[in-house]
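Help!! Second protein's tokens look totally different from the first
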Amino acid sequence: MGGADFHVEGADDSSRAAAHAHSTAIVVIFYEMEREAPRTLHSLSRSYQVGVNHHDYQVVAVDNGSPKPLSEDMVATHGDNFRLLRIDDALPSPVCAMNEGVRQTDSEFVGLMIDGARIVSPGVLHHVETVAGMYDDPIIATLGFHLGSRAQQKSTKWNRYSAEVEDALLDEIGWPANGYRLFEISALAGSSSDGWYGPISESNCLFMSRTSFDRLGGYDERFVSAGGGLANLDLYRRACELPGTTLVMLLGEGSFHQVHGGVTTEVSNRLRRRRRARRFDEEYASIRGYDFQRPTVPPVYLGEVPPEAMKFAKSSAFADGF
């Protein structure tokens, strides 16, 4: 943990042991996301996710040293399977916090959300449970989207897109009544630019067995850049290429990024964005010894495309693909 201190809010040994008894644990990292966190957590709750009444899972909300910590009461309102892990003295990179969040669980499967500003679609957990019963060691990926008409690196330029605009869009579609309407107000993230039928660079709502996570050594803690640099892309690539695993892409599901001044999306100036991207690329190359490239392992597909997402299915069909 690089010297960072942590504690589980409101958990004694007995309650912590009870919290461990889950088949799936989803670890979500938050930093200064007082506005975004309630939506993200609600999207992982049993009241929002469909077909999960019998799915035994927990959500670990990790506050990675926010100056104004997340509220334990707010986290708890989403269900008795939610708990808060506070990282004191946190590092700028969230990778240590992600690894610690996983270590604090004892689950067969782990869900990894390194960016807590992402609302997920309603069928993710149901499909994860289905895939886990079909394959011995699956890597389960979801596509990434940005709320708004364009990727937020572009839409936030000259203040044309903001939290206030985003709030109005979510109100307009009546979220969270129908979570699939998020597709109507979103654009593909750059890391998922080819859509469902092409290779992606990363998944911001990624699931794998705890065994696979441990085989990978978790997130590589040598990624020390703010926001983790390319740590999430690195984990995804290594997971895709891990022998014995099967990559499964969930059709018709995704994670939707809320604007929040994040490390990559808040840089609207092109020159500054390029400089930051170059630093991330250099860090990756110094760790791995080569430049990052998207993994080209073809996935199997599971799920169905709702009408609200059909435009993305159509555009994906005309992308270059694998």
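Here's the second one for comparison:
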Amino acid sequence: MKTPTTSPSLRRKLWIGAISLLVLAGFFVLKTSPFLPERNISLFNYLSAHSVQSLTLQTDIQAIYEKDSIDLPATLHWVEASGKEINLPVEISIRGNNRRELCSFPPLKLKTIPNKALATKSAGFKLVTHCVEGTGESLLLREYLAYQLYAGLTDASFKTHLVRITYTDGSGKNSPVESWAFLLEPKEELIERLSAEELDEAGPIQTISAVDYNRFAVFQFMIGNTDWNLDKEHNVKMLVPKDGGLPFPVPYDFDRSGLVNAPYAIPHSMLPINTVKDRFFQWRGKDRTQLEPVLEDFRRQKEELIGLCRDFDLLPAQDRQDVIEYLEEFFQKMQVLLGDGRQMAHTKPIRQGGLS
């Protein structure tokens, strides 16, 4: 790869100068677009609803590799089922904390540029990328599968849309990069879909819906994920129903789970486990008999969950087998959660409601 000699600041000026041209081009492309009547939906929902499975994203690829913390103009291209080609001006930015440092190709955030000619409303959404060349695609598909598993258990989950994406360099100085990626439902649309709002409460979570919390905690145990924290809302959104119900959690970011088993994933130093594939139950309830209904739900849906993994043929056969064996181990040992096994010792019990 040839590295450009231009500085990030100069490159930014050159690309910003192109934004007006991109927007103008987007106006003429989109003015007659067949999806103009659907202007009130987000780009995420449009791509999902229309089963767009292949995208091209043209931007400053070198800035992505250098992880410049600036908004980059870009063009998103796809072909409609009718054969109509769409070129949509967007802005992208580098996101993520840990992955930004760990990944050679970091995760991105896409947002449409405000323009009355755009057929979809202005909204940003996360693009989960392959992180590293080679094994990165399998790891990404395993994380995508984790989202699918949770969505199979509850609607209180982020929707995802898997795409084959080609990243092309507007300057022509870097070769195209093609990989799997998936789009994550915008937080605002998750909230609207669930008729909820963000929990406006700082500090430790005091009360939570028992049904949702127990399902959430058991799921995290099932996939071997300890990289979350309710009080700090680390890798979890805390929402509350608009009708006045109890708060409930919606998890995201599963790349450090045992199910994914990324080479960079290690347990937190305070946890008594050696690898992320070692399961540890982070649960703050008082009476473990409360877990019996949710464990029965998991047991009842076992074949569907395993079937999701077995039928996901985009994932290499060896990876699928590894995932299935990991889940089978959970189902064989899930009753241990009803005993006095290890749990987080530094947190106070959380009140759970809504048991009915």
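Reply: Different proteins will give different token patterns, so don't panic. The chain has two domains: 8-189, 195-353.
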